[in-house]
Amino acid sequence: MVSTSGMIIIVIKMLEIGVFFLGFLCSECSAAQPIPDQKDIFATEPSFDVPVVNITVVEGKTAILPCSVEHLGSHKVVWTDQWSTLLTFEIQRIIDDDRISVERPYTKDWNLLIHEVRYSDRGRYTCQINTDPIKTKNVVLYVLVPPRIIDEASTRDIVAREGETVTLVCNVTGVPTPTVHWYRRPLGQSLGVKERVGMNGEILIIYNVSRYCDGIYECMAFNDVSPAVNREIPVEVEFAPEIELPNKRIGQEPGRETMLECIITAFPQALSVWKRHGKEIKDTHKHRLEVYNEGDHRITLSLRIMDITAADYGNYTCYASNKLGNDIENMYMYDHKKTLRTTTPYPMTTPRRVTTGDYRYISGHNNGGTVIETQGPNPSGAAGNDKDTILADSPWSSGITCTGSLIVICEGPMQGRSMENHAVKTIEYASLPVLLCCAIILNRLTS
């Protein structure tokens, strides 16, 4: 039987063995993991020194995406794009795109530069530090694109017939979406003279076009990214001839000479002649023909008759024609010595209406005349002024009559318009001599 003192000795021996093995194990552990240096114990984790920002740049410029790191130490910095493609490793470019580089104006800066930025470069870019876990900072790049007009998808020169519908297209691109304004400059006017027409949109529609709506139409696109762009679209309207005679009758003595004048408005100008007894009058020693271009598709055809004899008195016919039609007016020449008084020439022009086809009905309004409509994907507001009569209620496509500045071009020289409760009324103007005669007669009757 073991005594109590013997048991105590055995326990002490076992404790000594345990302490030995524990010391051995601890020494092995210390050998495998050396005690860190004092500098490493107090080292600071890397951190980003710049807050999260978004960068906006115009296409073609250089984008600088900032990344500033404090206490980088031995860690590495890389840039990736939104598809996790590795772009750079420290200052080395990894991707095969020489537009990309790393800029380090200061030691802690690791800015990503993208030269000649394209619209496809837009998106999220990430600056990363290879800590555990990895630290990241996102920078979103927005790319603005100046407005551009796509020539192949836009309208070129237009030649239309009176009464037809004319559609002008100005196809534009840009970021943000450009706003398109329309202007018109009458043919032959200086570059600085133009007027606003229609509403905002890429498509301008002119219903029931008339000769007074021709001119140079200009679309201007802008989106607050310089420069704005414009495109000019010439519009010519063909119409049948119309003849005006300054005098219906003219008197002259035998042996003298006189001149007959005929004003012809037409586009295109084709055949314009003076006739006598159904036969065309040629340029001879007896008759001298001259043509004067008055502009606005108007010419004056004059016939000078030399050494007048009794055989020269009678009717003379001015005749004009083109592919759209013809017109004819007669003038009478007489020997005023045989009359009691000389007929004083005065304008005999009768107010005439220009036939431009059927009226166009829009949104239940029954307003005649030329109608301009503008269409676009996102019109941002009305163009024009309070005089514009809006015929369509849709926010996406609206029609306006040619009022305001267009009142002049969409009515003939003998017509005008007045606006009352958004209804267009045609007013015919009588010639001045007729009004004066009426005033004189009325005055005598009342006196």
TrEMBL record:
Cellular component GO terms held in the UniProt record: neuron projection
Keyword tags: Disulfide bond, Immunoglobulin domain, Repeat, Signal
UniProt xrefs under PROSITE patterns: IG_LIKE
SUPFAM superfamilies, A to Z: Immunoglobulin
Occurrences of domain Ig-like (ranges): 46-140, 147-236, 241-329
InterPro entries named in the record: Ig-like_dom, Ig-like_dom_sf, Ig-like_fold, Ig_I-set, Ig_sub, Ig_sub2, Neural/epithelial_adhesion
Any Pfam family: Ig_3
Coiled coil: none
Protein name (database record): Lachesin
Phylogenetic lineage: Eukaryota, Metazoa, Spiralia, Lophotrochozoa, Mollusca
